[in-house]
Amino acid sequence: MLEVRDLCAGYGGAQVLDRVQFHLLKGEVLGILGRNGAGKSTLVKAVMGMLPQTSGSIEFRSQQLLGLPTYRIGRAGVSLVPQGRWIFPRLSVLQNLQAACPVGTEPPDIIFSYFPVLKQRLRQMGGTMSGGEQQMLAIARAMCARPKVLLLDEPSDGVQPNIVQMLGELIPSLCKELEISAVLVEQNLDLVMNAAQRWLVLERGRIVHEGRLNSLGELETLEKLLGV
Ligand SMILES: Nc1ncnc2c1ncn2[C@@H]1O[C@H](COP(=O)(O)OP(=O)(O)OP(=O)(O)O)[C@@H](O)[C@H]1O
Q1: Disulfide: which of 54, 100, 191, 199 matches 9 by Cβ 3.0-4.6 Å?
Q2: Ligand 1 in contact with 82 (CB < 6 A)?
């Protein structure tokens, strides 16, 4: 689905990502782990065309995304659930969802089967929802664009442990049912190990490790790399 090669990106004069390479298979959930400041958010922002200084190659279903404006990357089928959620606080839940729907369409029903709480609160202002509910709204909103690739930036941030556990089950099943591939950026090791089939560790803008479940000594390696 996605093939990233030699991706360099940064801000102003400072380069953050250093020749990052990875691929994302169809239907796969790929974790991106790393300590604070490793460059995880920079990576998803670069894929989403949100950084001016980017070089390398980002191929999505044989289409080159690098250099395209963010709205065209979105239309091509890549959606971002940003860190901090960025929901519209003064719009209702329904309006938040409608804002991401292609013109002339409404939020697909399947979203409400995954997030029934949103169905019960369609008229509630986004800003009055709890942290966990806002995270569900942010994921549901991204789904309204009917993406093929979903980029999730630290969905566990500011969310209660029971909701994090729920996300660990929901993300892979949603991806499987809707045939979506996902990049799951996280510091929460448990969430990645529950939701992803494969993961990469970023350190100072470079990929230093690739792992998967059931690899011998994987947990110890990750704990050492992440300092947990
Ligand atoms: N807008 C910006 N301008 C300048 N430097 C930035 C900007 N955003 C991030 N950086 C720097 O880029 C580096 C990587 O930051 P990034 O947010 O990608 O890390 P991260 O791995 O997502 O961290 P965290 O887990 O804490 O969110 C850091 O050194 C950070 O200070």
Answers
A1: 54
A2: no
Q: Which residue among 15, 35, 41, 157 has the greatest number of ligand 1 atoms within 8 angstroms of its CB, and so is best to mutate?
A: 41
With a pLDDT cut of 70, the percent of the chain lying above it is 100
Cβ–ligand 1 distance for 42 under 6 Å, the answer yes
Backbone phi and psi for residue 143, each to the nearest 5 degrees, phi listed first: -65, -25
Q: Classify residue 49 by its DSSP letter.
A: T
Q: Where are the beta strands (DSSP E) in the chain?
A: 2-11, 14-24, 29-34, 53-60, 63-64, 78-81, 149-153, 181-186, 198-203, 206-212
Predicted TM-score (pTM) of the model is: 0.94
Instruction: Give the pLDDT score at 225.
Output: 93
pLDDT at residue 13 is higher than 90 = no
Of 197, 145, 146, 199, which Cα lies nearest the Cα of 171? 197
The response to whether residue 39 sits with its C-beta less than 6 Å from ligand 1 reads yes
